[in-house]
Write a structure and sequence with these properties.
Shape: flat
Order of helices and strands: HHHH
Keywords: mRNA processing, mRNA splicing, Nucleus, Spliceosome
Largest sheet: none
Protein name: Cwf21 domain-containing protein
InterPro entries: CWC21, mRNA_splic_Cwf21_dom
Subcellular location: Nucleus
Number of helices: 4
Helix content: 55-70%
Family: Belongs to the CWC21 family.
Strand content: under 5%
Structural class: mainly alpha
Distance between the termini: 89 Å
Number of strands: 0
Length: about 190
């Protein structure tokens, strides 16, 4: 065995002692990390992953079609005429799609600060829905706390440091002004 890799002796271990590379091991991506900036001069900033709008729309339409199919199944069990089934299904589909559009407009209004948005629990596989809900929640929180959209974390400290630097540069000029004021005050009889 070289470099202390593998078993010192395969005896009694149930293996042959043959060492091979783990092909399933995934190495971290150094130059293509998803959250790091493309330009190294840029400061790293948190950008949540954007949900795929197409997938979200597809899931909403799929929910509508599931409800339409349930109605169709129920009507077929009741042995209703095929034309009646089609007309009722089309009617329900139009109604649900209109409600879906109205609900999206309501979500847009809610994200504008009008009323709380409904809470919904998501399953593990609903990644895009979860990301969309997280973005909406962050937007509501940002508006509630009156944080501007161009806010950067730590910008207050940077501005404060800039003010201090300007203050130290201005101190020399200000010192000259203070000396002039003191001389005037002494001349006027103030101390």
């Amino acid at each position: 065995m070289s470099d202390n890799v593998g078993l010192s002796t395969p005896r009694g271990s149930g293996t042959s002692g043959y060492v091979q590379r783990n092909l399933a091991h995934m190495r971290p991506r150094d130059n293509a990390a998803p959250y790091l900036p493309r330009n190294p001069a840029d400061e790293p900033r948190h950008h949540p992953r954007q949900p795929d709008k197409g997938l979200l729309e597809h899931d909403r339409k799929r929910e509508v079609e599931v409800k339409v199919f349930e109605l169709r199944d129920k009507l077929e069990e009741e042995e209703v005429d095929e034309e009646e089934i089609e007309s009722r299904c089309d009617e329900l589909r139009k109604k649900l799609l209109a409600e879906m559009e109205k609900g999206q407009d309501g979500d847009r209004r809610r994200s504008g600060g009008v009323g709380p948005a409904p809470r919904k629990s998501f399953k593990m596989h609903q990644v895009h829905e979860l990301a969309d809900a997280k973005i909406k929640e962050s937007e509501r929180l940002r508006q509630a706390l009156k944080i501007s959209k161009d806010y950067e974390e730590g910008s207050h400290w940077r501005r404060q440091e800039e003010r201090l630097k300007k203050g130290t540069e201005g101190d020399a000029a200000e010192g000259n002004k203070d000396e002039g004021r003191r001389e005037r005050d002494v001349d006027r009889g103030r101390d």
